[in-house]
Amino acid sequence: MKTVVLLFHPNFEASRINKAFEQAIGGDYTVRHMYVLYPDNKIDVAKEQAVLTEADRIVLQFPMYWYSSPSLLKEWQDQVLLYGWAYGSSGKALHGKELLLAEFCGMTYLTPFVVKGTLTMSDEDLAKHAKEYAEYLKQASIPALGKFD
Questions:
Q1: pLDDT above 90 (res 92)
Q2: Helix, strand, coil: what percent of the chain each, to 5?
Q3: Using one digit for the tens of pLDDT, what is the confidence trace for 33-51?
Q4: How far, in Å, CA of 146 to CA of 11, rounded?
Q5: 47-77 burial, b for 16+ CB within 10 Å, e for fewer?
Q6: CB neighbourhood size of 149 (10 A)
Q7: Diameter of the chain by CA atoms?
Q8: Are the beta carbons of 133 and 142 closer than 8 angstroms?
Q9: In Å, how far are 24, 44, 78, 79, 133 from 75, measured between CA atoms?
Q10: How far is it, in rounded angstroms, from Cα 32 to Cα 8?
């Protein structure tokens, strides 16, 4: 199974949590640092759609800001997940793929991996959660919450 992790963190270098998660999963997956790839928010839609087409499992990894995602993730969704390509009567490009932390597009919505209390997390708890994250992604079958069409 080809898994791609789209890492949307506007300040990755300062992120203890996201760095530990990336380190824990090692080189087993393609990790794309979206803020490095698109510092000006000018997203290469064709490239992103090709990446999604080649993947079997798509992971959206990002910090929650005020119960929402970083702005580049929203921009990426608006530009890449187009009507007629990702959804709609003729939008079937992503059907059958697994998606972690999103819904719609005829894809299977997988149970998200969520870690709470990251600002005050001890190094020991971080190591434990990072290991759990790596194990979670290794599962051949992550539990699904359902299908969204």
A1: yes
A2: 40, 20, 40
A3: 999 999 999 999 999 999 9
A4: 32
A5: ebbebbeebebbbbbbeeeeeebbebbebbb
A6: 9
A7: 48
A8: no
A9: 28, 12, 5, 6, 26
A10: 8
